[in-house]
Design a protein that fits this description.
- This protein has 240 residues and is mostly helical.
- The protein folds into 2 domains: 71 residues, no CATH class; 136 residues, Gun4-like (Arc Repressor Mutant, subunit A, Orthogonal Bundle), CATH 1.10.10.
- The chain contains 13 helices and 2 strands, in the order αααααααααααββαα.
- A two-stranded antiparallel ribbon has the order 1-2.
- Helix 1 runs antiparallel to helix 2, helix 3 crosses helix 4 and helix 6 runs antiparallel to helix 7.
- The longest helix is centred in the middle third of the chain and has 16 residues.
- The radius of gyration is 18 Å and the shape is globular.
- The two termini are 17 Å apart.
Length: 240
Amino acid sequence: MLSGPPAITTASPDQLLDRFVSSSARQRRGLLAALDQQLEQIRPLIGERLDRLDATGDDWAAGSLIQLLLQQDDGLSQAFRQRHRSGWLAVTSAQGLDYVPLEGALMAQDYELADRITSERLRQLAGQAAVTRGYVYYSEVPPIVAVDLESLDRLWLTYSQGRFGFSVQLRLLRSCGDRWDLLWPKLGWKLNGTWTRYPGSFTWSLAAPEGHLPLVNQLRGVRLMDALLSHPGLKGRLRS
């Protein structure tokens, strides 16, 4: 397997940002350490770079740059938050749901909070009965409008270096030959035949296995996750 190029430490901040944004996902991951090395010089340039990126997509270069920018609570981060009070990523909801809290949690890499908000939004999308009940039935998934599931997926992809999201889980399921018993351990949800205990045994960081987040209530069986990953709004986002 070919690895990405070594991190560039001699490039100027502008050159490094250009390389990061234009590189493949594998190459980008090899450049993250170099970005950290020049963080003080790079942060003032991030706002202008974001203006060039597509807020209607799910390119995780933008999400990573935003997370770097927000590492420090100073004038730069405050100016960004003021300018993007409704979030940076252009997401929509057919039901008028507010995705700003979810984007804020993902920007801050508070993945546990982001997961809880995602579960809440899924219940709201499923209807008042699911909100009252506290969980979603598999039969309540098909009527969910595709654009909301797409918005949730795009948010997770953008702020996780492309590692988390429903479409990632669907791709992994396909790679397992649609065998759920092989998928659960790959996601880190089931180890040695025992379901991972919530929340302490889950990994709430980018160190988690690919597809680890967001969670679906696996203890209720396969049917809910199968309905979710079978939804046209997510199947259309499947990537190789």
